[in-house]
Every structure is written in C-alpha cells, then in structure tokens.
Amino acid sequence: MIVHRVFPESQVCQVCVKLNPSGRIHVIFLVEEPEAQEEQSSKEPKKAFGVDLGIARLATLSDGRFLENPKPLERSLERIRVLQRTLSRKRFLSKNWLKTKRKLAKEHEHVGDFRRDLFFKLGFLLAQEYDVLVLEDLNAQGLIQKAETRKRRLRLYDFSFSELRRILEWEFRKREKLVLPVPSYNSSRECFRCGGINQNLTLEDRVFHCAHCGFTLDRDLSASLVLLKRAGWVPPFRCACGAPPNTSATLLRVGGGWARWSVEAGSPVREGGVAHRSHSMEMCLKPMMRSFSLVRFNHLEHLSVILFVMHVRAKYMGEEIQRV
C-alpha cells in the first residue's frame, strides 16, 4: 500500500474507493482543512518562460531546451494489438478471457502511468526554476479533426495536451506562481523580431525564416518566443548554446526525460531529501463502490485488499460490515 501524505483522521469527511479494470484499488480521502489566510506577497515574478507543445518535441522552452516526446502509446501499441487479438479468440467471461482482459487493462494503465509520471516531474522541475508559465491555449480536438492521416491522429491522441496542461498549471499554482494562457493562432508562423507572418510555412519545415527581416531560428523555439512576447514577457534571451536568437542556433538536446536533472520516467523525484513517486491522482467527490461480486479473483491477496477497503469504509464512514 502506498500512502501519499499523512493527515489527521478527525478531518476525514468522505472516502472514495476506486477499482481499476487492472485490479488496482485506490482509496481516496476527502479531508476538510481550515481556510488559510491570504498573505499579500511583495515578491514579484522575475523569471518567465514560454513553452511550445508539439508532437515530435513534447515541449520546447524559450530558453533553448526541449524535451522529446517519448510516445508511450506508440511504443506499447504492438503489444496492445496482440492482446486485443488474443482476447477476441477467448470465450466471453471465461477464466482465460478475464485473465487476458486484465493484462490488456494493465498495459493501458502502464501507458497512462508513464505519461502522468513524466508530466508531473516536468511540471515539478519547471516550477522550481521559473515564476511564470506562458502556455499556448491549444485546441487539441480541433487538431485531431483536421489531421489528414491516421498516424497523425494517433500521435495527437498520444500527445494528451489537456492532461499536460492541467498538471503544469497545478504544479505552478500550488506554489503560488503565475500561469498565463495566450492564443496559439499563427504562433509558428509569426516572426519574433518584426511580427511578420510567413504564410508559406508548412508542417515539414522545421526552421522558421522571415522574408521581411531575415530572422532565422528553429520553428518550435521561435513559437515559444512568440508566446512569451504575446504575454508581455521579453527578458534578455540567449539560447542554451550561447548564441543570440537572430542566428540559426542549434538547440541543446536534453534526452532521456530531462537528463540535465538526472530524471527519467519511472524514477523518483527528490524534494527536500525525500523521494516522491508520481502516481495517478484522481479527484473524486462522490463515494463510489464497485460490486465485487462480479469480479473473479485468482489470488487470496485480492480478497485481503477487499477486506481492507471494507474496514476503511467502516472506520471513516461509519458503515457496517456485513459478515457472510
């Protein structure tokens, strides 16, 4: 059992039990905390950065660093297809059918856990370094509908922009830092220096060149600078390699999931000497209890988990345990 944080038992007002299709059980406590007094901080934000989100590069920062998209769904797609074909050949609700279905659910759950783990670590590291987050207000559903090929639609689904944005905003606002969403219209085609629009820029072009002033820069880096400029933050800028933005600088490639901080997806992030592991965080305000009579358990440990959940609900919610 993994406990995220310690809280007093007297402040628990609601308990939510969630059973995933893979068999993993979450017990979520709704705790009532006293209202904190708002203190007006005289500290003004000093460091701001813009982030351009994409498919090939998950995030490109305005300081010249970028993170490649690990594409967890695309990496696990072949195994998911094999499990789906195997499941289709099994007899419905048989023992082997339930076993294969649970394996398939675990594979999907692994993809989601890998993605959330990377997003939480990315948000934690950026919130530790910057005071203002400038994020493009991207319409992911519109991009999916406009996708011409099936492969591009799959990569957009794997992109999960809404979840990345939610986690980044949560990490910054938890530390009382600013989050500024700006319009993303023509952010890749607009010139950072003069504001001209390059209408001939296509998706295959990875370098932005302005015909008006001759400004040349990487396409994603230029878009992140434009977003930062639209928010009114234009600090002195130099690329990670030390070159000014008016040259075609080579970006600093940070591979392996922000190797600069020695962090990879699946490894703990240390804060104050304590290792914290990013797990799935589900906010649920309504009590939910699945009917366990419809689930077949192959091991006695699952039964012990059910008894533990019933004990928790009886302790915190005052429910009586019916003995069979």
Descriptive account of the structure:
The longest helix is centred in the middle third of the chain and has 35 residues. Helix 1 runs antiparallel to helix 2, helix 2 crosses helix 5 and helix 3 packs antiparallel against helix 4. Helix content is 36%, strand content 17%. The protein has 8 helices and 12 strands. It is flat. It is an alpha/beta fold and 324 residues long. It has a 6-stranded mixed sheet with strand order 7-6-3-4-5-10, sandwiched between helices. A two-stranded antiparallel ribbon has the order 1-2. A two-stranded antiparallel sheet has the order 8-9. It folds into 2 domains: 69 residues, no CATH class; 172 residues, no CATH class.
Give a summary of the structure in a few sentences.
With 324 residues, the protein is of the alpha/beta class. The protein has helices at 72-88, 95-129, 140-146, 150-159, 161-174, 219-230, 255-258, 300-317; strands at 12-19, 25-31, 48-53, 57-61, 65-68, 132-137, 178-183, 207-209, 216-218, 252-253, 269-271, 274-276.
Integer-rounded radius of gyration: 24 Å
Q: What ranges have pLDDT less than 50 throughout 5 or more consecutive residues? A: 235-301, 319-324
Counting structural domains, the number is 2
- The number of strands is 12
Q: In what range is the share of β-strand residues?
A: 15-25%
Domain Probable transposase IS891/IS1136/IS1341: 36-144
Keywords: DNA recombination, DNA-binding, Transposition
Domain Cas12f1-like TNB: 161-225
Pfam families: Cas12f1-like_TNB, OrfB_IS605
